[in-house]
Design goal:
With 112 residues, the chain is mostly beta strands. Helix content is 0%, strand content 51%. The protein is built from no helices and 11 strands. The chain has strands at residues 3-7, 10-12, 18-25, 34-39, 46-51, 58-60, 68-73, 78-83, 92-98, 101-102, 106-110. The strands form 2 sheets. Strands 2, 4, 5, 6, 9, 10 and 11 form a 7-stranded mixed beta sheet that branches.
Length: 112
Amino acid sequence: QVRLVESGGGLVQPGGSLRLSCAASGRTFSNLSMGWFRQAPGKEREFVARINPSGSITTFADSVRGRFTISRDNSENTVSLQMNSLKVEDTAVYYCHTLNYWGQGTQVTVSS
């Protein structure tokens, strides 16, 4: 069993930045690859970013590469998503994910 709790969502203007965090508990965090997904209204959930257990390898969706970064702190059991140069089309509920576990999601709204 893994519990994932996201935080950090909110309303931001286009071009702005937000940082999402996900706190994990229930398993040895340093053994887990962690990911972020998002789901916009009326659309399917899509992959955003992933980080391997040591933090040495990161992967991004084409739509966010160069604007988003993913990092982790294995001493704090957290994974973060730094989102810069946000666009209206980044508006979605963002979910933390590992194995077959999901967090409850945090809303990100990009609007002027």
